[in-house]
């Protein structure tokens, strides 16, 4: 499995006691597949992504990314793992205002220490893959919301991640642009063999997924049952 979350429990401080955000959660995501996570607000979906991204350390359980068990890794090791193997796409694109679309991608890869001469070429290839070949030199304020989200997705793919974690990528977009972004995620997952996890509230997305799991009060329901939801 490219992403394996095994028996993960996560609690947050809650006054005198603790709130259980994830309760013995298991999830495995093979390369080249998409898994949707649905469930009510506050059920633990973002917490699951944060744990899978190694941004939050669970109380117990294992998180294995691209064959590497993250338990016991130092902060620096996790940071390197994230740069090399994990792409993260949040709801709001969070692009740097002063950089062009191509530069947003190049900065990402520059941080990972890749040779700079190849970076622009790769950035342009990815912008082409997300349908923005002609926008490479535009800054965020010169792009539409859907175009910014596509830059965001291209940026997350810049370091060829094994795992792509996506939180509500279409919530700020109209139906047509949301559908285009989802098409793009499906295509890129297949072509680039990423293990993709998508948190979504949009039921229209679910028939495009390989699997749907349902989060309720920190517990993931049986995927077989969830597929029929
Ligand atoms: N940093 C935190 N400190 C304390 N409690 C938190 C923290 N982050 C989340 N929680 C709590 O953990 C539970 C799960 O939150 P989480 O954000 O994972 O849910 P979610 O399913 O992503 O919700 P939404 O769909 O509204 O984004 C909620 O009860 C929330 O209030």
TrEMBL record:
Q: Which domain of life is it from?
A: Bacteria
Q: Which InterPro entries match?
A: AAA+_ATPase, ABC_transporter-like_ATP-bd, ABC_transporter-like_CS, ABC_transpr_LolD-like, MacB-like_ATP-bd, P-loop_NTPase
Keywords in alphabetical order, please. ATP-binding, Nucleotide-binding, Transport
Where does the ABC transporter domain lie? 3-229
Q: Which GO terms describe its molecular function?
A: ATP binding
- Looking at the keywords, is ATP-binding present? yes
What is the protein's name according to its record?
A: ATP-binding cassette domain-containing protein
Query: Which species is the source of this protein?
Result: Streptomyces bambusae
């Amino acid at each position: 499995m490219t992403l394996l979350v095994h028996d993960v429990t996560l609690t947050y401080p809650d006054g005198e006691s603790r709130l259980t955000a994830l309760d013995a959660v298991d999830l495995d995501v093979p390369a080249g597949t998409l898994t949707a996570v649905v469930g009510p607000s506050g059920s633990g979906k973002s917490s699951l992504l944060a744990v899978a991204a190694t941004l939050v350390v669970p109380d117990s359980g294992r998180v294995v990314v691209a064959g590497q068990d993250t338990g016991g890794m130092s902060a620096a090791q996790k940071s390197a793992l994230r740069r090399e193997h994990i792409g993260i796409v949040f709801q709001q694109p969070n692009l740097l205002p002063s950089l062009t679309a191509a530069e947003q991608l190049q900065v990402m890869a520059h941080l990972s220490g890749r040779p700079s001469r190849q970076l622009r070429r790769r950035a342009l290839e990815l912008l082409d893959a997300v349908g923005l070949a002609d926008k490479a030199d535009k800054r965020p304020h010169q792009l539409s919301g859907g175009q910014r989200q596509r830059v965001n997705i291209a940026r997350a793919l810049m370091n060829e991640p094994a795992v792509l974690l996506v939180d509500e990528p279409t919530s700020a977009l109209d139906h047509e642009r949301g559908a285009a972004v989802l098409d793009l995620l499906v295509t890129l997952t297949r072509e680039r063999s990423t293990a993709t996890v998508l948190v979504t509230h949009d039921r229209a997305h679910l028939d495009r997924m390989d699997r749907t799991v349902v989060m309720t009060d920190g517990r993931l329901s049986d995927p077989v049952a969830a597929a029929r939801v």
